[in-house]
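Job type: complex structure
Entries:
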Amino acid sequence: MRRAAGLTAALLAVAGCTTTALTDPAPVTGGDPERGRLLITELGCAACHQIPGIDQPQGSVGPPLAEFAERRAVAGQLPNTPENAAAWIRDPQRVEPDTLMPDLGVSEREARDIVAYLYTLE
Ligand code: HEC
């Protein structure tokens, strides 16, 4: 129950005017979800995160990224928007200096693709 209430609140806060962001992320993020999925595989994000659709062993150093679009905050620090999620992925230490998540040298374009994929997760 607690989870359902949180989810409703998150949807109201994040989706606000529209729910199409959850089903068709490309126009919202400007990224390509399929390229994002390949980048996630190449960069090894699953070593630390459980990520649906990634065919690799999955670790749990970081939080699971399932239902990412429904999260209210990125790393508990920033409102969950495509821009903020991309900023986090490009340079986590800029947001949270002592985070365990490494800077993996992700470009702006790559970050948009990765976020597009993460926003498809349910
Ligand atoms: C060495 C482990 C590690 C790797 C590799 C890693 N992360 Fe993380 N990630 C973390 C940790 C730890 C956190 C939690 C940070 C915090 O809240 O302080 C995190 C947080 C996140 C968040 C925010 C999640 C949330 O619920 O707020 C996203 C999104 C994310 N990582 C995406 C990625 C992507 C994409 C990659 C690959 C490019 C990646 N991570 C690689 C450890 C990692």
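Summary: The CA atoms of residues 75 and 88 lie 8 Å apart. The radius of gyration is 14 Å.
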